[in-house]
Amino acid sequence: MMVVDRLNGIIEHKNFTDITGYLSPGDCLVLNDTKVLPCRIKGRRRTGGRVEIFLLARIRGNVFKALLKPGRLKAGEKIILGREGITATIISRNEVSFNTADAKKIYSLGAMPLPPYIKREAVASDNEDYQTVYARKAGAVASPTAGLHFTKELLSKIKKAGINPVYLTLHVGLGTFKPVKSEDITRHKMEPERFEIPVQALRRIKEARRSKTKVFAVGTTSLRALESYARGNKSGSTSLFIYPGFKFKLTDGLLTNFHLPRTTLFMLVSAFGGEKLMKRAYKEAVDKEYRFYSYGDAMLIL
Fold first, then answer.
1. Distance between CA 244 and CA 273 in Å, rounded?
2. At what angle do helices 220-230 and 264-273 cross, to 10 degrees?
3. Where does the pLDDT of residue 186 fall: very low under 50, low under 70, confident under 90, or very high at 90 and above?
4. Residues of the chain with CATH 3.40.1780.10
5. pLDDT tens digit string along 44-80?
6. How many CA atoms lie within 13 A of 184 on its CB side?
7. CATH 2.40.10.240 segments of the chain
8. How far is CA 237 from CA 17, 29, 49, 170, 271, in A?
9. What are phi and psi of 142, to 5 degrees?
10. 40-111 is classed CATH 2.40.10.240
11. What is the mean pLDDT of residues 281-290?
């Protein structure tokens, strides 16, 4: 784990379990308890051609919003999914219907949606490895990967030290990884993501603010939910885009992984840590061979 001190511009290199040394009694550690759905489903056309259906969200009943490969599939075409007689019918470019409304059966056909930069198919171990140990509320199509570093034992140790783990939910969507193509970043539009902060979590967070202890966001998703709330968005969905110049109201520290360039994730980290310091930190991460992306190493920004 890289530790970046914004105030003094100091960069340290630690083990992840050292995180307890940077948290104090009364601090809040805010974790996103979303659970990743096995939403990548393989099928075949009647002609034998392979098809991938990436489920994004349930619209109603047996109808789902989805990404389809190949893109030339025609409305009305039936896709054979190969188990329990379940089939899918193409409604439009981004919608499919199944011959069952049983979501459990539909998702039982799927695999974990590993990011495209992981150049392999998902395997059985990803069902556990790509899920945080505190995942509870199903709805994400990508993992809040900063949380993958925690074990139940470490969370227990953190709690015993008087640090408060609190849980909110933001269902991670594909928009999180959408590259910013516009030269004017203010024109980039974030895809809305559903979030909720329970009353108990808000109580703990507000108490931390009153007592002048700190609020640490675990992951960019937790941070976006916190800062959306701080701007009057209590629950529902958020399209908050955080980039350099953003004024943070509720977050004192951020735990995150190392992200791809030209993404909203890297821009958020640069906004929180400062562009110059983050560029130096990333260069040092490359020089010291840190692992990047979803299954990579962590950065704690103080």
1. 9
2. 70
3. confident
4. 2-36+124-301
5. 998 889 999 999 999 999 999 999 999 889 999 999 9
6. 2
7. 40-111
8. 33, 22, 37, 9, 22
9. -155, 155
10. yes
11. 97
Residue 255 and residue 180 in contact, taking contact as beta carbons nearer than 8 Å: no
Residue 138, SS3 per DSSP: strand
Let me know the angle formed at the C-alpha of 235 by 130 and 195, rounded to the nearest 5 degrees. 10
Q: What angle do CA 90, 92, 93 make, to 5 degrees?
A: 105
Mean pLDDT for the stretch of residues 22-26: 97
Asked if 215 and 208 count as a contact pair (C-beta separation under 8 A), the reply is yes
Instruction: Indicate the class that CATH gives domain 2-36+124-301.
Output: alpha beta
| Cα 124 → chain centroid | 20
For residue 119, the model assigns a pLDDT of 87
pTM for the whole thing?
A: 0.93
Measured CA to CA in angstroms, residue 158 lies from 22, 149, 163, 218, 251 at distances of 11, 13, 6, 14, 19
Q: What is the DSSP string of 30-73?
A: EEE-EEE---EEEEE-TTS-EEEEEEEEEEETTEEEEEEESTTP
CB-based contacts of 254, cutoff 8 Å, min separation 6: 216, 217, 220, 223, 269, 272, 273, 300, 301
